Amino acid sequence: MNQNTSLTGSPSVEQTAQGPERESLGGIIVMGLGLMMILSVGVMALFPTARDTDAASLLSASFGIDGGLPFGLEPVRAVSFATGEQLVLFRDPDRSSEEANAPRWLPSKSGAGWQIRFTKAKVKKQVFDWSTIPVAEEGQPPAEAALALFSSKTAKKVVQAQFNGIHFEDVTQLPLAGKTVPVDAGHLDWGQFDAPYIHLRHYGRDATGPGFWDTLRVNLTSGSQARILYLRWPRGQAGHKDHALELLAALPTEEPV
Asked: What would the pLDDT profile of 105-163 be if each residue is shown by its tens digit?
């Protein structure tokens, strides 16, 4: 690839399926509420079987990495799928435990609530002002990450699903149940490449009420196989692309040979 060009296609711990024959990439990479939502349903359905493998060997052979990543992110699991996909999960054990410390939405404090409005079809649509959800803090590094490699057979489909068709929306008028919306998008410097990224905010509800989780994905595809970096922050903490830049500096641009 020429220099200074864009790359192709400009709740916590792992959860597995009921059996090996049903284990999917999406089932493997559930970390908090984050990486489950990062991959689209279409992508998750691509992988029927998987097996655990040595993280150090997979990182070296598939990503050219020896050891962990910046911000105390250490590999905690590596998975190879029968269809050629590979995945390595990283976690900072200290920061990934901060979920319980996230701020909670308090109606009496924020003054926010939900409302009902009618669409053109006269169907009631419950919406909520998600801009009232408090942000715990900004500037903190991600607590979890994943490096995923997709085979040449599925690479184009994966990149299109992960980086296209996402639109900015008014967060004061999102569904009451929540929704995933982009916060920022663009390109990041990665050696001689410009790597496309999307910063997402996943609004949703659990037993404690409404909240959000930030994730960021970076397209590292430079050849026939799609490589994607995923980052997740603890509940209520705002992510930022600058942390992705620091992580990219630790990732080689050349495909391992």
From this structure: 544 343 444 444 444 555 667 899 999 998 877 788 998 888 988 888 878 888 888 88
User: What gap in Å lies between CA 55 and CA 71, rounded to an integer?
Assistant: 18
Q: Could you give the C-alpha distances from 136 to 10, 101, 160, 179, 242, in angstroms and in order? A: 32, 9, 32, 20, 18
3-state secondary structure 117-179: EECCCCCEEEEECHHHCCCCEECCCCCEEEEEEECCCCHHHHHHHHHCCCCCCCHHHEECCCC
Neighbours of 57 (CB within 10 A): 10
As a residue count, the chain comes to 257
The kind and range of the H/E element at 78 are strand 74-81
User: Where in the chain are the domains?
Assistant: 11-86, 110-135+160-183
Cα 1 to Cα 11, 74, 189, 220, 224, distances in angstroms: 39, 30, 15, 13, 11
